Amino acid sequence: MKRTGSAIWTGDLKSGHGALATHSGVLKDTPYSFATRFEAAHGTNPEELIAAAHAGCFTMALSAGLAQAGFTPKRLATQATLSLELVNGNWSITSVHLENEAWVPGIDRQKFAQIAADAKANCPVSRLLRADISLTAKLEASGAT
After folding, report:
1. CA neighbor of 100 nearest in space, from 83, 85, 120
2. Domains of the chain (ranges plus CATH)?
């Protein structure tokens, strides 16, 4: 199974702008810019999308773990807060904090904490953030100087 997302950028970093899209069409020509990424302007940015993906992935993994243990949650709500910081001159994602509120009938705190810790460690997005990342970069002939 493969999922795709794409980005187009025009111009320099500060005054340029771009658009994000997903193959599913959920995001289509969704604008982003330096201001939406680094200056809190209205709009999205890559880090916000990573945070949303992590919150969604963790919450589904937690639901699956609870089901495997015989529990059915009434509601799971997760917020992911991603920190983007300047480290040694490079913008870096330094942490993601997952904050979850769960309503799960019949479970004790210790069992819930164990299942939540497993979901945090093993959801695909958590594993991605530890993964090797590969790149194929191709300069089109018309873009070469």
Report:
1. 120
2. 1-44 (no CATH), 45-131 (3.30.300.20)
Q: Is 14 exposed, middle or buried (0-12, 13-18, 19+ CB in 10 A)?
A: exposed
Q: List Cα–Cα distances, 122 to 58, 100, 119, in angstroms.
A: 8, 16, 5
Q: Report, as an integer, the average pLDDT of 99-104.
A: 92
pTM for this predicted structure? 0.87
Q: Is the CA virtual torsion 13, 19, 23, 27 positive or negative?
A: positive
Q: Are 78 and 97 in contact (CB under 8 A)?
A: no
At 3-22, the pLDDT tens digits run: 899 999 999 999 999 999 99
Angle made by CA atoms 25, 82, 19, in degrees to the nearest 5: 30
